[in-house]
């Protein structure tokens, strides 16, 4: 810990902090400008990096489709299939499946989970609802 003895020392430390912050901002700006003017291969040499795809690029990528990384999911909120992420990783003996896009309403399966899986009674569930827990 640094012990500051005078207002002059405090002011000098604050000014040094401002200079460091300004220098870091300039370095960040130079890095962004420098990177944006170069090709990805040139910038990423030796760095694990890749482009960031738009949604349109992802859903139209033939490699992602061929690998099963995109799959139809039934969405009961809108009554049709929607495109979403597939099961990753794809395992040869247990490839996995997608049943739906997820619950259409928060808490939709509370009775099933708390009642059947966790053994809570209907009275306990009603008490939890009244207390705002469920």
Q: In a few lines, what is going on in this structure?
A:
This protein is mainly α. The protein is built from 6 helices and 2 strands. Helices cover 46% and strands 9% of the residues.
Terminal Cα separation, in Å? Answer: 50 Å
Helix/strand/pairing category: mainly alpha
Q: Count of DSSP helices?
A: 6
Domain module tally: 3
> Biggest sheet, open or closed, and with what strands and sense?
2 strands, antiparallel
* Rg, Cα atoms, Å: 28 Å
Low-confidence stretches: none
Helices and strands in order, then pairings?
Elements: H1 7-36, H2 40-43, H3 55-59, H4 62-66, E1 70-75, E2 80-85, H5 110-117, H6 122-130
Antiparallel strand pairs: 1-2
Short key terms for the protein model shown above:
single chain, 134 residues, mainly alpha, two-stranded antiparallel ribbon, 6 helices, 9% strand
């Amino acid at each position: 810990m640094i012990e500051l003895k005078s207002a002059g020392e405090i002011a000098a430390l604050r000014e040094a902090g401002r200079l460091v912050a300004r220098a870091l901002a300039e370095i960040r700006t130079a890095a962004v400008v420098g990177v944006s003017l170069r090709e990805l291969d040139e910038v990423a040499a030796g760095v694990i990096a890749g482009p960031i795809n738009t949604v349109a690029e992802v859903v139209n990528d033939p490699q992602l489709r061929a690998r099963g990384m995109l799959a139809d999911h039934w969405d009961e909120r809108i009554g049709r299939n929607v495109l979403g992420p597939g099961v990753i990783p794809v395992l040869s003996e247990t490839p996995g499946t997608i049943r739906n896009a997820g619950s259409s309403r928060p808490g939709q399966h509370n009775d099933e989970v708390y009642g059947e899986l966790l053994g809570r009674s209907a009275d306990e569930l009603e008490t939890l609802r009244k207390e705002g827990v469920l």
